[in-house]
Amino acid sequence: MNGFVKIKNGSYRNQEVKDEVFPLIKQFQLGSKGGFITVDGTGRFGKDKIRISVGSPTDYELVEATEAPVTAPQEDDEAVINRIAERFEILDDMTKAVLNGDIRAMIVAGPPGVGKSFGIEQQLERANLFDQISGRRVKSEMIKGTASALGMYKALYKYSDSNSVVVFDDCDSILLDDVCLNLLKGALDSGKKRRISWLADSHSLRNEGIPDQFDFKGGVIFITNLKFDQMKSQKTRDHLDAIQSRCHYLDLTLDTMHDKILRIKQIARTGELFADFDFNQFDQDLIIEFMQDNQTKLREVSLRMAIKIAQLKKSFPLKWVALAQTTCMKAGG
Predict the structure, then answer these.
(1) 3-state SS of 250-286?
(2) pLDDT single digits (tens) 154-188
(3) Are residues 51 and 134 in the same domain?
(4) Is residue 333 part of a domain?
């Protein structure tokens, strides 16, 4: 045994290993399938001698025993699936609370393609449908993609009434713009009165009859692919810490490639993922097994990718694997 090693970037049996510490058995070697180091994987993988694939010696570093954390026993797959399902149930409950006006604001963080937006969008559509049937003004909207500071100000004004909700989905550019961040902080402020102001002159606001300041009484949901605690810029981190302190922050904890595969399995079990394809259980298992075996080669591991592969299997039942390898994998994969 030669102390401890921290894996910066590696994998074991198609499971990502990143920023994890193991007891080192043997340093870097080259094998028929590339480079690897040998470690004691008991705490993480339940095996006392495993080979972790790494590209080169720069993908790991030796650390002192005092720096090595105690590695918690690895969750089994069922425990992870249950944890993921529980997080998404919490997301549904919190969304309802924002729509009801019981909670002022929420940030939802998680990787792309795992269904962060789906449940929120469904609940918004349901709430809007009731408003439309009753002849009332719709009180919620999901804004997707890039949002300018002025566009954000207009959206906050439009949904500034109590029990109104504006959802910013995939608008991560907001978090990199000082003006947008200050508007967002104003909307999330914990005080009794949330005053939003636009200090610059704007013909657009005047033409649309929008005042240069107003009281915001609505709710905000911000859906992001970014982890707030992993932002490198200290200035941005300070802004994000201020935002996080003002609202509920829900991290969906889908941190590894394996977690994403288990999320796909969890949705498949509900019957929702492949509902439009009339697949039997064997066909569904084949698709998920294909994704699991090729997770490091696919362009992305996501619910969207599962649907793409399902479309190929439905249209080309005899050669879907070859087509998926060609159209869904990275070049050279």
Answers:
(1) EECCCCCHHHHHHHHHHHHHHCCCCCCCCCCHHHHHH
(2) 999 999 998 899 999 988 888 888 899 889 988 98
(3) no
(4) no
